Amino acid sequence: MNFQRLGTTADDHAIADAVARFADDALAPLAQRMDEEALSATCHVPGLSALGVMGMNLPEALGGPGVTPTAMLLSLVAISRACAATSSMIGAHYLGTDAVLIGGDDAQRQQWLPRCASGQWLAAFALTEPRGGSHPADMRTRAVRDGDDYLITGVKHFISNAAEARFMVVFAKTDMEAGARGVSAFIVPRDLPGIQVSAPEKLMGIRGGHAFEVSLDGVRVPASHRLGTEGTGFKTAMKVLDNSRLDVAATALGVAEAALAAAAQWANQRLVGGEPLATKQGIQWKLADMKLRLEASWALTMQALALRQAGQPFTQHSAMAKLHASEMVGFVTDEALQIHGGYGYTREMPLERLVRDARILRIYEGSSEVQRSIIARGVLGGS
């Protein structure tokens, strides 16, 4: 892959190139079967862990490889180009570990994160509920203090990695009347009594990135597992989502690059009237529009990434990158399928899978409508 982008370094390229080789050799050959049989992408954790991918969001002091956010993003692009379901599984793991990294104290970080960085443990992030998807402040899951513990009761939905995770970061109301200010976050070991996890949801795309409904019935969690003080959980979640929206943008970039490469190859090889499809101006213009939107998404993503890496606020820029990239990949994959004609609609080609994989990116980690609201608040001078 070509990782020569503004703001990247030779070390970033070397790391991403190593991940790209693994993705091409190990992920891409299994991607179609994973989709057809809904195999869990967690089968790739050992190989990804050997490359340090499972801990790329963590510092060396906590077992991470100590790479830059840029190297991590480029690596996710390479993985997504080969298998978006695997990228989704990794992204869910990062959500859980980022929550502990951002909201936890030193003791919590040392207890939970090194084995996540090594891939020994998988993490999950339990925020979304059946009645509170795009407005998590409306959540109904509650945590009631009981001596040195909390009792957590509620239902979480579309929780990636929940069945395989060693722990979930669960968001619950400690004050039901305080809205977002009443939300607290807890590290909840997956094996505690009172937790039930459904069978995997039957998803349209990224079918190897398993998602589940999680029911918690009076789950007793030590108060020492609370991240930060009561009422700070929502702020932690929003900081985590700033990061994860760049992960979603990376997934979109990888899927779009795969679709554009497939379309260009098909256009060069497919003969119509004895001439390659690529000689037709209509096809050339499609490819040009696809490339234009892809590069615009790269630019927005790298801009947000530069702010993140510099330690500056990047909420609005992360929202712009996620919004543009997730909508771009829908356009690019659809045009790539169109260029393939009827063949693109069959499962003999990867295009129909890429179209299905791309669709969720406009929904999770905040829908396109939510991203527009975030951007508008920045324009209007709000927080």
Rounded mean pLDDT is 96
Order of strands across the main sheet: 1-4-5-8
What would you say the CATH architecture of the largest domain is?
Answer: Up-down Bundle
> C-alpha Rg, in Å?
21 Å
CATH fold title of the largest domain: Butyryl-CoA Dehydrogenase, subunit A, domain 3
What is the CATH domain class of the largest domain?
Answer: Mainly Alpha
Helices, by number, come to 11
Terminal CA distance: 38 Å
Would you identify the regions where 5 or more consecutive residues have pLDDT less than 50?
none
List how many beta strands DSSP finds: 10
Q: Order of SSEs, N→C?
A: HHHHHHEEEEEEEEHEEHHHH
| Residue share in helix | 40-55%
Please give a structural write-up:
A 4-stranded mixed sheet has the order 1-4-5-8. It has a 4-stranded antiparallel sheet with strand order 2-3-7-6, covered by helices on one side. It has 11 helices and 10 strands. A hairpin with a 2-residue loop joins strand 9 (271-272) and strand 10 (275-276). It is globular. The protein folds into 3 domains: 10-117, Butyryl-Coa Dehydrogenase, subunit A, domain 1 (Orthogonal Bundle), CATH 1.10.540.10; 123-230, Butyryl-CoA Dehydrogenase, subunit A, domain 2 (Beta Barrel), CATH 2.40.110.10; 235-379, Butyryl-CoA Dehydrogenase, subunit A, domain 3, CATH 1.20.140.10. The chain is an alpha+beta fold and 383 residues long. Helix 1 packs parallel to helix 3 (69-82). The longest helix is centred in the middle third of the chain and has 37 residues, at 233-269. It starts with 9 loop residues before the first helix and ends with a helix.
